[in-house]
Amino acid sequence: MTRAPMLGRFRYGYVAPAALLVAVLLYAPFLWTAYLSLTRYDGLSEPEWTGLANFAHLLDDPALLTSTRNTLLWVAGTMLLPVGLGLLVAVLSYDLRGGGWYRVPFMLPYALSGAGLAMVWSPVLSHDGVANTLLGVDTAFLQEAPVNTLAMLLVWTWQQLGVNTLLFVVGLQSIPKEPIEAARLDGASGWRLFRHVIWPLMRPLTAVVVGLALVASLKTFDIVWVMTQGGPGRNSETLAVTMYKETFVASDYGYGSAVAVLLTVVTGLASYLYLRRQVR
Amino acid sequence: MIRRAVLVVLGLVWLGPTYLLIVNASRPAASYDPSRAWAPSGDFALFANFATALESADLGRSLASTALYSVVSPLLGVVIGALAGYTIVVLRLRHGFWWFLLIFGGTVFPSQMLLVPLFVGYSDAGLYDTRLGMILVYTAVNVPLAAFVLRNFYGGVAFSIFEAARMDGASTWRIFWRVYLPLSTSALAAVFILEFTFIWNDLIFGLTLTTTADVRPVMTALAGLMTDVYAGTPVPVGLAAGLVCSLPTVVLFLATQRLFARGLSLGSV
């Protein structure tokens, strides 16, 4: 296709609101954080320049190793459970008559806030709670690593499945009907129809859902914060929780900022590599 | 039919905890016992529990602010993001992919990282503890998602639609407003729901950037109460407050389910 001719003088004006909002309210704070990561700062006295000392500390901090491992567990688990199951539910229900009603049970938990989530599940997972009673075991679901991260991942799946399903359904409903009809006439159905016709067609929206889940899972914070605060000890911390704790609990703004910079770079790199492949 | 059976079984598993939530939120506050949480209670005390929560936290005015934020910010965010997506893929903005990366890049920052700089910046700019400040930050956080989804969506729309509208002499703005926006209703609605829910349930921005009851969002107001559960608020009271404050989101979901259920065939024109 040839490049379209001059399409209106306002093209830069059209992206400006989005670019400005993002630049002023998201990028500028990051630059400030990046500066703080090179200082020692307790939030009260003036930041004191320390160069790369905070980053050197990152390398020999055992807590950081734990939170990196937990974060990777969150990324892998999120792809498998909320995203994978979400795709399954969407594919099973999108062209059923009344399919929307089958999805209602999955959408309800998404309405619940993080604090509400903790309120529902903490009693369920407690030692005399429903999970132990129902399974006939006595597991300390939120105590030992990595069981506590896995338990929280299941809670997270309970909450997030619906939203992934919703996005996949939008993708499925926006794909053209003709190729599917044609493939059906040719005798394709079930798995073959999905694998060879539907899946390639829904790729743009799949890219969105997986991309969002990738970024969100790297930044996992809320669920861990409301369920365990990263504990017991520090064994269920994610990178985002470590960053928050170092900054707001330990008042070590410099080191907290260094963790923030690390997390941002990792997330940015992952999204860039992913988007370059999937979206361009 | 296997598909329906799988959906029903999974759905029932998902409803289990929802059932627990409703049963225990409706239980009289004093009669809660974690080991008997499955059993429904004879007395229905949901409203009494919620009234207790209302008394402990000043929720009325917070609810009004939250409603304002969760409607205005996603509306702005969706339109601004869609316009950016449209400009990048349909108007073929030069270096469009890099503009897209710049805007979508906004999502890589962990929101906890933004708190200290925003607090300092807002205090200097006179935006601290104002509704305008809250609307701005919520809009900024939501623009990247809208731009991402709508950019991909418009990429799937046949370019001939745009060319035909150009032939008829429509301006690029008019084509965006009258053709592309209406075309993408289901994607816009999906993004709106996500952003509405995000803002409605937001805790940390409200915690950091507001202080008065008029400006403070409802979840922040509730949070004190909820975390008090361990320190004395009975579980049913906390659950009832969480449940009632989630109702607007549930209603929104159910309302839009019908929109999605109608099976809008979009993007394939």
Q: Would you kindly provide a written description of the structure presented here, covering whatever features stand out?
A:
Chain A has 280 residues and is an all-alpha fold. Chain A is 71% helix and 1% strand. Chain A has 13 helices and two strands; from the N terminus they run H-E-E-H-H-H-H-H-H-H-H-H-H-H-H. In chain A, strand 1 (39-40) and strand 2 (48-49) form a beta hairpin. In chain A, helix 3 (62-93) runs parallel beside helix 7, helix 4 runs antiparallel to helix 7 and helix 10 packs antiparallel against helix 13 (253-278). Chain B is mainly α. Mean pLDDT of chain B is 84; it is low at 261-269. Chain B is built from twelve helices and no strands. At the A-B interface, helix 1, helix 3, helix 4, helix 5 and helix 7 of A face helix 1, helix 3, helix 4, helix 5 and helix 6 of B.
Q: Keywords, please?
A:
heterodimer; A: 280 residues; mainly alpha; MetI-like fold; 13 helices; 2 strands; 71% helix; disordered N terminus; B: 269 residues; 12 helices; globular
